[in-house]
Write a structure and sequence with these properties.
The complex is a heterodimer of chains A (294) and B (258). Chain A has 294 residues and is of the alpha/beta class. Helix content of chain A is 34%, strand content 20%. In chain A, helix 3 runs parallel beside helix 5. Chain B has one domain. In chain B, helix 6 packs parallel to helix 10. The chains are: A alpha/beta (294), B mainly alpha (258). Chains A and B meet through helix 3 and helix 4 of A and helix 1, helix 3 and helix 4 of B.
Chain lengths: 294, 258
């Protein structure tokens, strides 16, 4: 996708599994919105192929639109339309919409249902936009920065709803630049930068794929670290950094911790504290995209 | 917490239901918008009432002022709804992402357009009825009977097509603020000197030749001719059709939905 001489999305390739939540994570200007709007049929790619539910978003738009729920990053309502009215209107365009009153109840919107859109707070507008995206009972949901500008309660409410939608069989693709959001919500994360996918995987796998993680534990001094190292996977290192303080570095996973516990039990050693230091998705993200502001 | 079944059950509503909903929504928003009501009803009504004394300001020519001014006011009503009101509303719909939002819904783009056409039709029927009745109460004596009113409907449809596509041409290419400014400016200019209210025969020769080529001049003159029982001249009809076709082609080539 090019805008004039700027190539916003370049050779980006990703596939989404049905019934999962996929996060497209990236810094500002990375091409997240362009990607998602190409899938929604708002933009036509200059090259490449986009298939959504097996359909072309532009030529098969009529067939596709009823099946897809869209939450725009901003706007999307008449400034004078009241929140309920706007939601009812979008509902009326669908064959089997959700019960609007119940949806309002579920999203805690009853306090501002008759407020015109222009007088809603940013967070209230976001909530209404989310409601408009799901009211038509879509099978696929595109959410463009669904929690931008929300307070922590509202963010968690949105996360709960997205999880519930997944449990009900809805496929969700969302963009975000919140790591915790990608980490909490998604089954699959694609980190996008400068219009390309630079890393993909589950949040856990992505976080673990960078610099090695560590386990620190304390026990009596003078354990046989060489023997412990043999018990652990072969690219794992163990050091006694000070008497009684040990550091294991390597791929830290549940199996490694189980092996450590078993080895300690075999040696009759009681570990006094075990601290797992895992790299977070945020560490990995910054490692991949750099720390420069943009 | 209520038990909300979120499992997918997608589908578009039936087309007539979507269109009804869209027209109803547009009308509700319109009725709540003070400026739009001022433009579509209050100003034409005021000018109609004042028009009975228009000879104090401008000489409309031979005949009673009310008989000359009423058809012009009907033309003004068409202009206000199909041009100014449509352009401003569409400009802000683009700005606020409404057109984009609806573009992601099952409502097809032609459905969005038909929704607008439907809302304009309802508003114009209300305007033309109300203004005609008030005109009659003020002593308007239209000639040509029912035929003249039928001709009015034809002219209103053609005028709406011409003004509406011109309005969309502006709203689809300029920013919302610029659209607001241009739409209001054009309204005032055509109202004052576009051959809407003042018969073309009252203008200087040179101006008349330009004005009869404008959709405002063609619609105003067409309606005045109809209500003196002559029927609209073929020239007026042709002018309106040419404007509608040219602007319509322009819209289909340049209109940006967001």
């Amino acid at each position: 996708m090019r805008y004039g001489s700027v190539t916003a999305v370049d050779g980006l390739s990703l596939t989404v599994e049905q019934g999962t939540v996929t996060a497209i994570l990236g810094p500002n200007g990375a091409g997240k919105t362009t990607t998602i709007e190409t899938c929604e049929g708002f933009r036509s790619p200059q090259s490449g192929t986009v298939r959504v539910l097996g359909l072309d978003p532009i030529t098969d738009g009529r067939k596709l639109k009823p099946r897809v729920g869209v939450m725009l990053q901003s706007g999307g309502a008449w400034s004078g339309a009241r929140a309920y009215e706007m939601l009812r209107h979008i509902a009326s365009l669908h064959a089997h919409p959700l019960d609007v009153d119940q949806l309002i109840e579920r999203l805690g919107m009853h306090g501002y249902g008759s407020t015109p859109y222009r007088r809603l707070s940013g967070g209230q507008q976001q909530r209404l936009n989310l409601a408009m995206a799901i009211v038509g009972r879509p099978e696929l949901l595109f959410l463009d920065e669904p929690t931008a500008g929300l307070d922590p309660q509202a963010r968690h409410a949105t996360w709960d709803l997205v999880s519930e939608l997944r449990d009900s069989g809805v496929t969700t693709v969302l963009t975000t630049h919140f790591m915790d959001e990608a980490e909490t919500l998604s089954d699959q994360v694609h980190i996008v930068d400068e219009g390309q996918v630079i890393a993909s995987g589950t949040p856990q796998a992505l976080a673990a794929s960078g610099a090695k993680n560590t386990v620190r534990f304390t026990a009596r001094a003078g354990l046989d670290v060489v023997n412990l190292m043999h018990a652990l996977p072969h690219d794992t290192k163990v050091d006694e950094v000070s008497p009684g303080a040990y550091v294991i570095s390597g791929d830290v996973d549940p199996a490694l911790l189980a092996t450590l516990s078993a080895w300690c039990a075999g040696e009759g050693v009681l570990t006094e504290s075990v601290l797992v230091e895992r790299q977070t998705l945020e560490d990995r993200f910054l490692e991949l995209t750099g720390k420069a502001l943009r | 917490m209520t038990n909300l079944d979120l499992s997918p059950m997608p589908g578009a509503a039936a087309t007539p239901a979507m269109l009804r909903s869209q027209v109803a929504m547009e009308l509700r928003l319109l009725s709540r918008n003070g400026e739009q009501l001022l433009l579509t009803l209050v100003i034409p009504l005021m000018l109609l009432v004042l028009g009975t004394r228009s000879n104090d300001v401008v000489d409309l020519g031979a005949g009673r002022p009310i008989d000359i001014i009423t058809p012009g006011i009907l033309a003004l009503a068409v202009l206000s709804t199909s041009f100014t009101s449509l352009a401003i509303a569409t400009g802000f719909e683009r700005r606020y992402g409404v057109i984009k939002r609806l573009g992601a819904s099952p409502l097809p783009r032609w459905g969005l357009m038909l929704g607008k056409v439907g809302a304009i039709a309802v508003v114009e029927i209300a305007q033309l009825t109300l203004l005609s009745v008030v005109g009659l109460l003020l002593g308007w004596d239209p000639q040509g009977g029912l035929t003249a009113f039928a001709q009015m409907v034809v002219l209103a449809v053609l005028g709406t097509a011409a003004f509406g596509s011109l309005g969309l041409l502006i709203a689809g290419t300029l920013r919302a603020e610029a659209t607001l400014a241009v739409a209001n400016l054009v309204y005032v200019l055509l109202l004052v000197g576009g051959g809407l209210l003042v018969p073309l025969s009252r203008y200087p020769e040179a101006a008349r030749h330009v004005l009869e080529l404008l959709p405002s001049g063609a619609l105003g003159q067409g309606l005045r001719d109809s209500f003196v029982g002559q029927g609209p001249g073929a020239f007026s009809i042709v002018v309106l059709i040419v404007w509608a076709v040219c602007c319509g082609l322009g819209v289909s080539r340049t209109f940006k939905w967001e």
